[in-house]
Amino acid sequence: MSGGVVRIYWPGLLLILLITCIAVSGLPPGFCLGEEDTIVLGVFAPERSPSGEERILLDEIFSFRESSGEKPLLGVFSDEWMVDRKFPLENVRLLRDEGMVPYIRLMMRSSDNPYQKEPVYTLGNIALGKFDGELRSWAREARSHGSPILIEYGTEINRWNYPWNGYWNGYEKGQDLFRTAYRHIVDVFKEEDASNLIWIYHVNADGQPHEDWNNIISYYPGDDYCDMVAVSLFGTTKPFETGTRPFKETMDETLKILQAGGIQKPVLLITGTDVQGRFEDPAAFVTDIFSTLSGPDRPDIRGLIWLNSAWKNDNNPLHDTNMRLQDNSSVAAAFKKGLRSLNVQESAVCLPAP
Fold first, then answer.
1. Which domains does the chain have, with CATH numbers?
2. Whether the model pTM is above 0.85
3. For a 10 Å CB count at each end of the chain, is N or C smaller?
């Protein structure tokens, strides 16, 4: 067990608490996620376009910080191999300079067009070591950086809009290939002694296609290869959507599936909702999130990452998605109020217990 500093900001008052943090197996020494009653805030604020997720937009992060009333600790961005295979040093430094921990989505793909088979960075090619040179160089750069970095491969693995999903790789056979490819990547990084990396297994609470084989357990690489689990659970992802299931119902169901499959890793929630509210109230969805996270039977979720982004869905601007808190004051107010009901952890650095 090791201690950590949590700074919780309330209006007009700063509380600095010494807590005892739960040590999570596999996490770098000195990196702390807090006890079960604390939560880490993060933000994913990419460029306002379908592409551009590899860029860090500090203005967007600052806008989220102002709208939420809290400084996010985790900063998410994509490392797009269709753009560059090198370690994203500039982005990592930008986040470090802001006192944030990088969360990197390792996007080994040759295009960001959805619903298509990958021709280059296939699961088989990765498992065969065809990109080991680039991966080793990446790992050495990450190791030399020193401080903790969260990293995932296989973003939302149970969604077929991504090329690593089993649909594009032989269904159940694709699940075997994914596990092998994921393990190979981690093994390469371990061989390079990149021990400052925290490996994430990322699933979506709403898997597609809705087939029995496409379940979140079957892709899991194993406890020795994953330190945490990220669960994406969104409200409305387009302004004209209706019929969103209650957040708590879906979250509880997803966590039960993970537990039944023997996956007991700490959970990060990745969420967001379209703030335009044409058919459903986005502020109500946000309120539901925080009621769940702060309730008497709250789930053991260690982090909340908000997708603070906007993008086009087609040529009709009325169909554009917008999840940016700063663009709807009532949603921002609900988010800010909800954060006050939680113990938000500001620092990921653990200090020795007094």
1. 36-345 (3.20.20.80)
2. yes
3. C
pLDDT digits (tens, 9 = 90+) for 27-38: 666 677 655 678
State how far the Cα of 30 lies from the Cα of 351, in Å rounded to an integer. 7
Dist. CA 197–CA 146, nearest whole Å: 9
Check if the beta carbon of residue 78 is closer than 8 Å to that of residue 105: yes
Distance separating alpha carbons of residues 292 and 298, to the nearest angstrom: 6
Q: Return the amino acid letter for 140.
A: R
CB 41 within 8 A of CB 9: no
Cis peptide leading into residue 209 (ω within 30°): yes
